[in-house]
Amino acid sequence: MDIEVQRFLDWMAVERGLSRNTLASYSRDLVQFVDFAEKRGIKSPEGVDSQLILAFLASLEQARYAPTSVARKVSVVRSFFKFLITERVIHENPFATLTISKPPRRLPKSLDVDEVALLLNAPDIRTDIGLRDKAMLETLYATGLRVSELVNLRIDDVNFGSGFIRCLGKGNKERVVPLGEIAACCIRSYICGPRNRVSGSEYSEYLFLTAQGMPMSRVAFWKIIKKYAKACGIRKEVTPHTLRHSFATHLLERGADLRSLQEMLGHASIATTQVYTHVSRDHLREIYRETHPRA
């Protein structure tokens, strides 16, 4: 099955344009399934039936994987067998007779406006590192970029004249997102000051650099945002994605339409964006309870 798994991953890379990180995740999930099958004497896709799929699902649940992780792994295996059917490697899909329920969709966690303000003001802008971190945090909240999109920004991706940022999202899809004045001002200050002083910065096209002149990594920025969240006393779990969720939630609460939000977030399907409407409804319900005389 290893050969077919590699063919599937190559197809996903070319046809779907998936990122290296996503492909690595798919590969781990499929290797886990293949190992499970081979331990039961099944070494080819033709030998996989619905009973093996159910046994694999049961093993994941027994190993106490989170429901979302189980759903992702099963989804990847399902896509793999759909590919094998399309390529006529097998003639019967083991998923054809199965109905596997999806876990309930978790609402995105976000910060309120005051918490975001605390976080954005946490860096000490009197220092080069603080000014860089301030620019990154402001950019993330102003645009709703994914952390991978943020750290991969090039200097040329920022258009100060038009007030937009260009980024490359999932599936190598390019999109243009508005950039607020505060974020633009912070980026400009960072480029004119700290970034020019970093050794080797003139040779890098990346916007945000480490103190050593290297492109910022996702893991490094993850640690940075957690450091500032802790420093300003925010007790919630804060990640780069938290600011993306906050961006989306705050726009909806202030009247942004779903289609525009979908464009800014880079969601392929509006169904993904619609999860934020639940957050917005919770906000409206809270306002109603606080203000209606008979609530």
Architecture overview:
By secondary structure, the protein is mainly α. The protein has 2 domains: 2-86, Tyrosine recombinase, N-terminal domain (DNA polymerase, domain 1); 113-290, hpI Integrase, Chain A (Orthogonal Bundle). Helices cover 58% and strands 4% of the residues. The protein contains 13 helices and 3 strands. It has a 3-stranded antiparallel β-sheet. The longest helix has 20 residues, at 67-86. The radius of gyration is 23 Å and the shape is globular. It starts with a helix and ends with a helix.
What secondary-structure arrangement, pairings included, does this model have?
Elements: H1 2-16, H2 20-38, H3 50-62, H4 67-86, H5 113-120, H6 128-143, H7 147-151, E1 158-159, E2 164-168, E3 174-178, H8 181-197, H9 218-231, H10 240-253, H11 258-265, H12 270-273, H13 275-291
Antiparallel strand pairs: 1-2, 2-3
Helix pairs in contact: 1-2, 2-4, 6-8, 6-10, 10-13
